[in-house]
């Protein structure tokens, strides 16, 4: 059964994208070229969600383009907010020193790269109450929003990147 699933995923990705994906997605996952995504409705804090993705062999989804973000949003038909793998740099790691300002957003995997401006929803990130340091996708169909890391939300994991 596993081999049939891998074969079907491989054929689908070759027919649709012209490129095979690596490995296979978890049950109810979504494949996109060399990445795989899963949507988990379990309500966790940002740090708990990051740990849950790592324990399942992945990481919190790290959006790289507006087009990819739109495909993920539409495929999972997201209602409400979902954690993604971006946060202010002091949330991701304490070892960066003064390399970036405290308002710099980076990927949860620790990649020292700013999040592309085009991924944010209009007027985001805005840190409304001074505690919004983690990224979410959801209610804004056209981009990311900042949210308090201690909130409990579902999350999107990413595999094979």
Strand and helix map with partners:
Blueprint: H1 2-17, E1 30-32, E2 35-44, H2 46-55, E3 59-60, H3 66-76, E4 82-88, H4 89-92, E5 105-107, E6 132-137, E7 145-148, E8 153-159
Largest β-sheet summary? 8 strands, mixed
Helix content: 25-40%
Count the domains.
1
Total count of helical runs of at least 4 residues: 4
| CATH class category label | Alpha Beta
Q: Which CATH architecture would you pick?
A: Roll
CATH topology: Mannose-Binding Protein A, Chain A
Q: State the shape.
A: globular
Average pLDDT, rounded to a whole number, is 78
Give the strand content: 25-35%
Order of helices and strands: HEEHEHEHEEEE
SS elements, strand count: 8
Low-confidence segments, ≥5 residues, pLDDT <50? 1-22, 95-100
Give the class from helix and strand content and strand pairing.
Answer: alpha+beta
